[in-house]
Amino acid sequence: MDIATILGIVIGLVFVVGGILADGALIDFLNLASILIVFGGTVASTLVAYPLKGVMEAVKIAAKAFSNKAEDPNQIIAQINTLANIARKEGLLALEEASGEIDEPFLKKGAMLIVDGTDPELVRNLLETELSFIEERHKNGQGIFEAMGSFAPAFGMIGTLIGLINMLQKLDNPDTIGPSMAVALITTFYGSLLANLVFIPIANKLKLKSREEILRKEIMVEGLLSIQAGENPRIIEEKLKAFLPPKAREGFHGKQEGVGA
Is the dihedral angle over the CA atoms 226, 240, 95, 109 positive or is it negative? Predict the structure, then answer.
């Protein structure tokens, strides 16, 4: 689990609530009409802007912002190094048995394409095409949360306008102007809070996770094609380590791991 996402939201709420309590009462910031306008309006606009299937997929993709299950690129390089050694010693066909221990579907698919004797250029095209569609799906999910980050403040403003209209209709009673104005502004508060503490940060976290996943898969593509080309495992390892930042390379000890590790 990516504790940073949960920790960030919780800390944000704690500081906002703390700020409210420092000079006011929490109950003053609770308003059912404002909640309905901002939450309901944001969900409704999202459904208008995107297909229901896309919205449901975005909810699943959002789980990645709270997950930290991604495999370490160093482990992927070690797996590819192991496959390269097997291919060098026993031939490419030996990868069929070794692929049975691979948990990563993308890497397994690439290994099987090599075993099947697929042309290297076609292997690259197939894997890169899958990679581009994965990236496109990720962008769709990020786009939905970015859109929700723009819808929420807009509905906050709509709620404020509704509150102001209701207030102006009661100008004959000056005592109600202050409380009505405060209620009108609460919707803007809800919209800004949702956008800046939840939707936009989640979209940014998904972008980061997507870039990391694409990098891992690019390492796999390059590694598989190098194996197919019969390159030396040590050369393959050095080539793949070039994908990593210098600090990450320091954590790679050249240890060959089991394929299924």
Answer: negative
Instruction: Tell me the pLDDT tens digit for each residue of 44-78.
Output: 999 999 999 888 888 887 777 777 777 788 888 88
Per the model's pLDDT, the better-predicted residue between 180 and 98 turns out to be 98
Rounded Cα distance between 134 and 242, Å, is 23
**124, 225 in Cβ contact below 8 A?**
yes
Output the CA angle 29-35-36, nearest 5 degrees.
155
Q: How far apart are CA 86 and CA 98, in angstroms?
A: 8
For the chain, percent of residues with pLDDT exceeding 90? 36
SS3 state of residue 146: helix
Residue bearing tokens 């297909």: 51
Cα–Cα distance, 253 to 117 (Å, whole number): 32
* Alpha-carbon 127 to chain mean position: 21
* Separation of CA 77 from chain center: 23
For residue 188 the two structure tokens come to 């803007």
Token pair, residue 261, equals 């590790």
Q: Measured over all CA atoms, what is the biggest interatomic distance in the chain, rounded to whole angstroms?
A: 91
Q: Which residues contact residue 42 at a Cβ distance below 8 angstroms, ignoring those fewer than 6 apart?
A: 148, 151, 152, 155, 191, 194
Alpha helices in the chain (DSSP H): 3-22, 32-35, 41-49, 52-62, 73-90, 95-99, 105-115, 120-168, 177-194, 200-228, 233-241, 246-250
Weakest mean pLDDT among 26-30, 187-191, 198-202? 26-30
The structure's pTM equals: 0.80
pLDDT of 251 reads 60
